Inverse folding.
């Protein structure tokens, strides 16, 4: 197994010299470029390299838009990475579509806020599975929040302030 050796060590609470920090980054880069890291965390010595563009930003966790809906609604492409405000005085049915009609990428995240007094109910379209804590599919209270993440082709995980 390969061993990572860094040039400089640092003491917690002590200011670090930028040149020394940069040298340590160079040491790590050299180590990674000369090693193959397996998924289980083991390292195999070799001649692996990190290709340009191989490391990209994650798709989860970057909510960029806010929209409002006042009537029952089915998710559509374009809702990804969005917070949707759901405002209705009666039950609000939010339909999670089948991949054949709306092909969201796995990893898509959408968040919801129940702004109206009507309880939000998440309803899976045919062939869709919504997994949640104890199969809860309703937002608990007005101003309660929930999020949903697509984990497989027709599978989503719903979490937040939920009730059965």
């Amino acid at each position: 197994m390969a061993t990572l050796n860094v040039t400089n060590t640092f003491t917690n609470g002590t200011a670090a010299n930028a040149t020394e920090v940069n040298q340590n980054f160079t040491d790590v880069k050299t180590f990674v470029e000369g090693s193959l890291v397996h998924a289980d965390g083991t390292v195999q010595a070799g001649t692996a390299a990190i290709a340009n563009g191989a490391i990209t930003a994650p798709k989860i966790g970057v909510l960029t838009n806010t929209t409002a809906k006042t009537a029952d609604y089915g998710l559509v492409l374009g809702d990804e990475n969005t917070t949707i405000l759901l405002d209705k005085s009666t039950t609000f049915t939010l339909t999670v579509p089948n991949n054949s009609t709306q092909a969201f990428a796995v990893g898509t995240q959408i968040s919801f806020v129940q702004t109206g007094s009507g309880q939000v109910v998440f309803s899976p379209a045919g062939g869709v599975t919504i997994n949640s804590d104890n199969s809860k599919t309703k937002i608990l209270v007005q101003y309660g929040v929930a999020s949903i993440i697509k984990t497989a082709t027709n599978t989503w995980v719903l979490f937040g302030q939920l009730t059965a």
About this structure: The CA atoms of residues 4 and 31 lie 6 Å apart.
